[in-house]
Amino acid sequence: MIDEDRAALPAHGVPAERVLAEIRELRAMDRPTHGGRLFAYVYDPAVPGLDELAAAAYAESAHVNGLDPTAFPSLLAMENALVGAAAQLLGGGAGTSAPDVVGSVTSGGTESLILAVKAARDARPEITAPRIVVPASAHAAFAKAAHYLRVELDPVPLHPDTLRPAVADVAAAIRPETVLVVCSAPSYAHGVVDPVEQIAEVAAAAGVRCHVDACFGGWTLPYLRRLGAVVPAFDFAVPGVTSISVDLHKYAYAPKGVSLLLHRDPALRAAQYFAYADWPGYTMINPVISSTRSGGPIAAAYATLRYLGDDGYLELTRLTRDAVRVLADAVRGVDGLRLVAEPESTVVCFTSTDSGPDLFVLVDELAARGWHTQPQLTYAGLPRSVHLTVTAAVAPRAAEFAADLAEASAAAGAAGPVPLPAELLALAGTLAPEALTGELVAGLAAGLGLGAGGGLPERMAPVNTLLDAAPPALRERLLVEFVSLLQRPTGVAG
What we know:
The protein is of the alpha/beta class.
């Protein structure tokens, strides 16, 4: 039964201050978005005044609709300015080998990647069964794009030492039906940059587009290079690169959700558009998936770039680089832990040795000390790992994390692995996804502490241990069922 006093749609309106108080009460349940203790999902520069500026800019344009640039030319001007800034940063623009770079503002990296696949697919209408070649480390959004757009995905395995695809394997995966080849700068999971120059060359030789997913690193790699880091060529300076995605709500530190999809020239972007005139209403023309778009995120991104400036981003990248070094040294200093890859960008990824602690228990121990990290499950011979997305806000807390990592690792080692029943682990390793029943899912969820309507367990190690024992197809099905249990209607706001 709905609690009328806390219903989202009450019989009578609620005063503004009470509504805001309820939202603040709900927000208290969340992980902290500021303070340098959350190593995933949010990007915090710890710059005084930036939140207030971005919120004010957002409010100025929140009700402006990006559907029609002739009605709201302010958004067109800001979008073009954002694309111009990104093009200049990523090897395009006047005076470069890619002077005609164009682009669009999207709602996030996933939309940018879906549109990159759409543009490549629709530019080749003669191919009736299109395919895309991706490294196994490519972002899952490419699989989502393939699923939505009915494109086949051809994943290329990673070398276990370099965590990159071999260029020869990429070349061998290209078929006559291939419409796009993908590489990452860097990959999200491990933070390593794929051999973009060589992959783009084999794609160009086959007459296929090459997209660089720089959603994660596109706004930091150029600055890291200026700070002296060895950054391989990955942008429009590489002749075979035809499109690049970069998220402004990551290391450009704009509020969610703003990403950019850039194309080397307008002809390459043409197939990205959707237009429809065969109905009695207005002729629809969309450069992105959504039609109506709030101008709020675009204005907030524009304000953020203007406020921070090129020198501000260089300094934020320096702080981030220094924090990465401290965190990497912290991992090296703990017996039983090792880096999965030497940091090349803004990611620290580590795993445990044979004698080291259970990583899922370690993640819970870190959470108990106020650090929120991201566990990654085993995959194709690669070990389970812990991912740290490092931002500028981490810099003043990095030494504190180092001390807590040693303490948490010792505690996890003393606690030992999660003791899930052997028969349950065996079931996870052999059960077919289609054999899952509602009764079985409910029993598993209850045993793991997952409750309907939003109930979460205090510790996630049992959930992660079960998922880690399952092959990818069963992991997907289990997570769909678990999240479905959590996402149930309720009339209670708190």
